[in-house]
Amino acid sequence: MKDSNLDSIIEKAIANEQEANQFYLKLAEIVTDKAAKDTLLYMAQEEKKHKEYLLQYRQESFIGNATNTSKIKNNKIAECLQSPKVKYNMDSKDVYLIAAERELNSYNFYKGLASLHPKGEIKEMLMKMAAQELKHKEKVEYLYANTAFVQTAGG
């Protein structure tokens, strides 16, 4: 017997991952900085992998290897700074800040859904997805910090 609640959760998650993939691809089209463009294309590919994972999960109902969230560093940059509006020829730091905020929203989406469920398969799957989004947020916040606060030769 299929769990309609689980199906609706997975459908919403798949839609979110597809939307994130398209967002990053569109943003990559308007960014001129090669490093930022490459990062956005990487992020789009990661969101596509999430969608594929969710599709496979829906088919086979498996958890897979859980992500260890204790190794993920949350710098909370996206929580402290307001992301700029998307526009042509954006600075790389702004691109990374937008991506960090998007990953934060995805993390909160999965974590919020997980909090609604008791211990078990659904909660584990949602927490795994939350951890993946937090890992992406960590990556783009690192890139943001290195472009917004460039180190000089003197330190």
Please sum up the structure shown.
With 155 residues, this protein is mainly α. Helices cover 71% and strands 0% of the residues.
How would you describe this protein?
The chain has 155 residues and is mainly alpha-helical. The chain is 71% helix and 0% strand. It is built from 5 helices and no strands. About 5% of the residues have low confidence.
Helix content: over 70%
Distance between the termini: 62 Å
Following the backbone from N to C, one meets helices and strands in this order, namely: HHHHH
| CATH class value | Mainly Alpha
- What is the typical, i.e. mean, pLDDT? 84
Oligomer: single chain
CATH architecture: Up-down Bundle
Q: Please report the total strand number as a whole number.
A: 0
How many whole angstroms does the radius of gyration measure?
17 Å
Count of separate structural domains: 1
Contiguous runs where pLDDT drops below 50 for at least 5 residues: 63-69
Strand percent estimate:
under 5%
Q: Please, what is the CATH homologous superfamily?
A: Ferritin, core subunit, four-helix bundle
Outline: globular
Query: What is the overall number of helices?
Result: 5
Largest sheet: none
Counting helices, strands and paired strands, the structural category is mainly alpha
CATH topology: the name is: Ferritin
